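User: For my dataset I need records formatted as: sequence, then structure tokens, nothing else. Please produce one.
Assistant:
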Amino acid sequence: MHPPRGNGGQSITAQLGPTNTGKTYRAVERMLQHGSGMIGLPLRLLAREVYDRVTARVGEGAVALVTGEEKRVPPRPRYWVCTVEAMPAEREVDFVAVDEIQLCGHSERGHVFTDRLLHGRGRQETWFLGAETIRPILERLVPTAVLDRRPRLSRLHGAGSLPLRGLPPRTAVVAFSAGAVYGLAERLRVRRGGAAVVLGALSPRARNAQVALYQAGEVDYLVATDAIGMGLNMDVDCVAFAELSKFDGRQTRELDEAELAQIAGRAGRHHNDGRFATLAPLPPLSAAVTHAIEDHRFPVQRRILWRSRDLDTSSVDALTASLRQRPFAACLELQDRAEDARALARLRQDGEVMAHARDAESVGLLWEVCQIPDYRQLQLDDHFQLLRAVFLQLRGSRQRLADDWIRRHVDPLDDAQGDIDTLLARMAFIRTWTYITHHTRWVNDARAWQERARAIEDRLSDALHDRLVARFVDPASRRTRSRGPRDGSLGEQLRAVVPLAETRREEADLSDSIPRWIDGLVEAAHERFRLDDAGRILDGDRVLARLAAGVDRLRPEVTLLVDDLHAGQRLRLHRRLVAWTRDWVAQLLAPLRDERLASLGPAGRGLCYQLEQGLGTVLVADACEQVGALAPSDRSAFGRAGVRVGQHVVFSASLLQPAALRDRTLLCQAEMGRRLESARSHAVSFLPSSEVSDASYAAMGFPVIGGRAIRADLVETVASRVASGARPAEIARRLGCYPDEVEPIRRAFAPSRGCSRC
């Protein structure tokens, strides 16, 4: 039985409401307020979008991205961005969020979302995000949850039925099969100049390139499947349904009101109202359906899908029986359509497989193999042959997949020739191999195979984008516009959009130069970039950007200095470099995030926060309350981490090394928006400029005492020499100054300057 996991004193909140309520945005913001967190999202495209957003805030070193086909896990991530299926349930974090929780009712994936609903919990806080329709289920299964209804930020209005020629710019036309999408895109090319295309089968790289084409205003229309319905953020004014029914894996059925609303809700962003319509010759939606979508009122969910998580792998029969275990509540419906269970049922019929699945270890392995997704959407027998071969090799003498066997399957996929459907088929198959190679126990040199699979997907993605543009965009109509989101958040990134080629030959030339070059930078390792003394970010000798003032000293902005990029390329490069700066800052401040400081009390944590804001230096006069309240254990922890708590200054010794002093200067330089003389690592003190604040000099590692900037580690030494009555000449030698400059410093260290509480 699987009753829901108790909250154990943790906070559980359900943010419920229609699309465009900011639920996902708030969940990400809330996660970042915790020391660690995990968010599960319904699509890998959305996971990648959120990953890009979070890494731009905290750096790639702090964030893991885990989907079925992509795993980017740094050594010590604090935040995990995942697809719901890929959430590492065994990992404990402070905050957990699951998006689109109403998918508990999905006919194929529902049991996974239900498992997260029942058992996914953060140590301190848990959020579920979804539609209002899931409310009765939450009240029944998670009675301690606080249910918060979120209103939509803008209105949705029905617009009847529109002809193709009457579609307004910034319209997304929705169909439910690749053939229908292609046909609509071709009609828009002939009549309206072209369209970008978004299919669920696209890789994040190809999808981003298509969306950038649309977002930059190079085309006015987007043709998509219902892949756009799950939170992908685009500037859409109108959604037009070209179809109202879809094949759901078993049969073709009409979409219900809630499904239509999920897609129609992509129209309108933030406070801009949106419209939805059908595409002629489809008749308009009925008045009842239209009003339901406009008012966000739909029948509630009464049952959701469930499957036991306590699987018995002692034998194949026992595993099958546990998959058929009955639910513990009437609102739960047994999941009997899951792809992995169907694969297991088929493999049970194979005598050779059953001969190798005789104990708990081998049955557990068989179940792992059954979970290899069928990205190609093949007939089950074709997919079964692959699963069978994988299992039998893993149970063979080598207990690994043979390199030659993998190569025979992978090599033919490394071919960027062919039409759109051919490239999509290859891309789907390489996704399967990416999934397989991320099981490091299954393959030799897993890292090399993962890189090979990723490189192939990238090449196929680039070729697919080129084919989509060539087929569905009229070069004569393709135009240059600088169009950013209406909230202005991307205005700087999208400010310069250059004309793309007007002939296919020019398009091919461009795709072989700038886009590939940018893609290489976007995927580059941290070590590829460096900063010069002017605060410019370089790739080798190529200048890419410069640091600029951001929201605070620890989060500088990045201003691109690269010309001849279109909007999508600028946005991707900007995000990558912002993420790089966050990692760079995290590396600089690593001594203040030492594990030995994890046990600090409230006063110690407060002082540590001030040290971070001061880049490793704090004047005791500015932190008197925290220093005075430090417990002996706090002082010991600081000492073990290399932090000196003195009478006049608190500083990290590691952050006074030459490289750290340079980086601290660059951060202050970005904050002030002007070139600063580097805090000279060989100097122990110098005369400060009147144009630079004392706070900035302290952050550079040289607090200003008595009109002179003194390296933080010498402040206490000089203070003690002053207190002992040392002659001005001796103090001058220590500071590298003239004796007649010492008197203001002596006065600054007079007892009246201190604080008796410290």
